[in-house]
UniProtKB/TrEMBL annotation, chains A, B:
Residue ranges that the Swiss-Prot or TrEMBL entry lists as coiled coil: none
BP-aspect Gene Ontology terms: alpha-amino acid metabolic process
GO-annotated molecular function: pyridoxal phosphate binding; transaminase activity
Keyword terms, alphabetized: Aminotransferase, Pyridoxal phosphate, Transferase
Official protein name in the record: Aminotransferase class I/II-fold pyridoxal phosphate-dependent enzyme
UniProt xrefs under SUPFAM superfamilies: PLP-dependent transferases
InterPro entries documented for this protein: Aminotransferase_I/II_large (IPR004839), Class-I_PLP-dep_aminotransf (IPR050859), PyrdxlP-dep_Trfase (IPR015424), PyrdxlP-dep_Trfase_major (IPR015421), PyrdxlP-dep_Trfase_small (IPR015422)
Length: 440, 440
């Protein structure tokens, strides 16, 4: 049977499975299940060390006192907590969010904050109000996979800007702007994660921040600053938010997912007033309002708990895990591997030696009972085949060390194959539906 | 100053207020704040009886035992409840949702259910995967204002189908289909609220349901069935869901907002398998996942509380309020007013006598200390100027009676003005930002 014939059979097959195939919107063409989903059903088995996910480790949360506080909330303010609220968000929480943002130098008014269902929803809403199909979003390469998903859902085109050890490269940014504009395309914003980048594990050097802002302002490009990890510097250090230096041209995204609890889905966006107004209108049609209960839980938590102490606990916990990972990488990885050394956040970004394809290698890694996120998912343009993201946020230090050891063996085996065959035999990955490759 | 000059001044003014004006996506053109927002800041004052909102009355909720249950949940399963979950939703809750849907004749598999942040998010996701700009959505006239907002956010065009006392009119539906198709436009789905319609207060006659489904199937049009009120029939009656009669061509939306608690924002969508897969991919880019805590609260509530008894309590409560409203309308309204007589749900739809413009009358009603939702907001095409939605869900029966009395006086005064001047002098409505005209 010719390739063409086999393609036809496949289409017919898909059509039989989905009677609605001709009805979908064009944007669904970009919505495809991750190729490695099937694999992650396997990767989630307890015997596999997963360095793939982005789940925070919540073991340190004071569940008993949280339970008491939430119980009091329901008894005392249940009629409000269980009722609809506004799309803008609970006023008291928006004030508290301004206090949280002050820790990174941001001075803001509560009216310019909108609460969202995690900062993922903020990403979605910002893209919704700014991006027409074909518009360009500039983003670091690599970039957060969830943001790439939002941009793709609105048919925006992502153009990556190179990073180096000091983060987003200003010259790379100028070059990208000029290239995109000469192609006659419309740049809507620069999406950037300045602190403890996901997945790169790099922080934008402080001395570059004003320059990046100046370039964007000069070229009339809005900055979308995503900062979920900013308070998780391992030495308690913080860096000045881009928003603190240019309030009129930066839309800022924050989240309680990493500094409190991800399952509440409470994030926020801080935007210039007129933009915030549009965001609230967009949010009304998206969810009516974020859950009132969750907002009031976060508000009470900030009022009654030592939330700064809790963040210190998280910093310490993630620092230990980062140390475990860097130590193990140093000890076990074969020559030719290179990785970033984050001073905060959740992730290390590793580059494997020439000849290794991290996506193709993943099934073999899972066979060796270790999982990671392969690099191509973090690029919109197919780059990243030699890269992988290693998360140290969730497993214990001992599990991290064991996982890295297994991964090193996998890579060593892979390199043997490369040396023997010149390349590594590949097999396709497919299978039933499974949890997402990447949460957060 | 000429009109043209004044328009220019206004644009310049807007540009000064919003430096980002040239950057927004085209879809934001349809996102405008309700003209009556400013008014609703006033309408929310305690001395005003609001018949405008769609907030459920939660007074009957057992807050103490809910507080205990939620406290237990945090202590026993806090690590899971406060952690990320899948975009698909908590498996146990999806099974329970299937049991809830059985009450309306639906037989479904938990895998085909996706949990959403209220059914508003389900509306948003369904529109996202089906509608390209310019696609047509058929909907009852009037229709749910939040759905119109979602359709507009994706630049879909709404074509209304006439209703009568038995709901959506099959001949009207055939006519609309033929008209839209002759205009060369692409119909993506029929959006319908068959039970206790918001805002119309009408239920689709059972004998019409098969016919409506047959028409849609014949013409290859998907049905989007929105059923937030289905279990709130005042005599405990239920009607067979459209989904129960045509599983392959109906996407079904449900919600716990009206039968449990709206502030949790837990709704769901039930869809044919391939559609559900696309919905999960869309939801991942929208919110990553719905809040795990809220899903587990609903799941525990269904397991440990007499939720069917609670629904009976709600039915009784809303029946009393409906009775109060219908009695007061009968007693106070001047001749020429006409209204629907709902046997379930939250709303009465009233038509005022010739000459009354309900949007223009609203400021005068608020002066008389009563508020309602004027009819034009429930149409995409400017109809509804003589109509208004009167919600009986939230105020007490006494307040409802008082509100209707005030409204009757307002209309009577309005008719006096019409008789004296031939029409009613109008003034523009504007002012600062205020809560949304309509929650739910």
């Amino acid at each position: 049977m010719s390739d063409h014939g086999s393609q036809e059979v496949e289409n017919t097959h898909e059509r039989v499975l989905d009677a609605h195939l001709d009805r979908y919107a064009q944007r669904t063409a970009g919505m495809t299940a991750s190729e490695v989903r099937a694999l992650f059903a396997v990767a989630n088995r307890p015997e596999v060390v997963s360095l793939a996910g982005g789940m925070p480790n919540l073991a340190a949360l004071p569940l008993d006192s949280l339970a008491d506080e939430i119980s009091r909330l329901i008894v005392e303010e249940g009629q409000q907590a269980l009722q609809y609220g506004s799309a803008h968000g609970v006023p008291r929480l928006r004030e508290q969010i301004c206090e949280v943002m002050q820790l990174e130098g941001i001075s803001a008014h509560a009216d310019d904050v909108m609460v969202t269902v995690g900062s993922q929803m903020a990403l979605d809403m910002v893209t919704r109000i700014f991006c027409d199909p074909g518009d360009v979003v500039l983003a670091e390469g690599p970039s957060y996979v969830g943001a790439l998903g939002s941009f793709s859902a609105y048919q925006a085109e992502v153009v990556h800007v190179a990073m180096d050890d000091e983060g987003l490269n200003p010259d790379g940014l100028r070059e990208a702007i000029s290239k995109v504009r000469s192609a006659g395309k419309n740049i809507k914003f620069l999406y950037t994660i300045p602190n403890f980048h996901n997945p790169a594990g790099i922080t934008l050097a402080v001395h570059r921040r004003a320059e990046i802002l100046e370039i964007c302002r000069h070229h009339g490009i809005l900055v979308l600053e995503d900062n979920p990890y900013g308070l998780l510097g391992f030495d308690g250090q913080t860096y000045p938010a881009l928003r603190s230096q240019d309030p009129d041209n930066v839309v800022y995204l924050g989240s309680f997912s990493k500094v409190f609890a991800s399952g509440l889905r409470v994030g926020w966006v801080l935007a210039p007033h007129a933009v915030r107004e549009k965001l609230v209108l967009a949010a009304e049609s998206a969810t009516l309002c974020p859950p009132t209960l969750n907002q009031m839980i976060v508000s009470r938590y900030l009022e009654t708990h030592d939330w700064k102490g809790q963040i210190k606990t998280y910093q310490e916990q993630y620092r230990q895990r980062r140390d475990a990972m860097l130590g193990a990488l140093e000890q076990h990885m074969p020559p030719g591997c290179d990785w970033t050394r984050p001073d905060g956040g959740f992730m290390v970004w590793m580059t494997a030696p020439e000849g290794v394809d991290t996506k193709a290698m993943l099934p073999r890694a899972v066979t060796q009972r270790v999982a990671y996120a392969s690099g191509t998912g973090f690029y919109a343009d197919g780059l990243g085949s030699r890269q992988m993201r290693l998360s140290f946020c969730y497993p214990t230090p001992e599990r991290i060390q064991e996982g890295v050891r297994r991964l090193a063996n996998t890579i060593t085996d892979e390199l043997d194959l490369v040396r023997t065959f010149g390349s590594v035999p590949q097999r396709p990955v497919s299978g039933p539906d499974a949890p997402s490759v990447d949460t957060a």
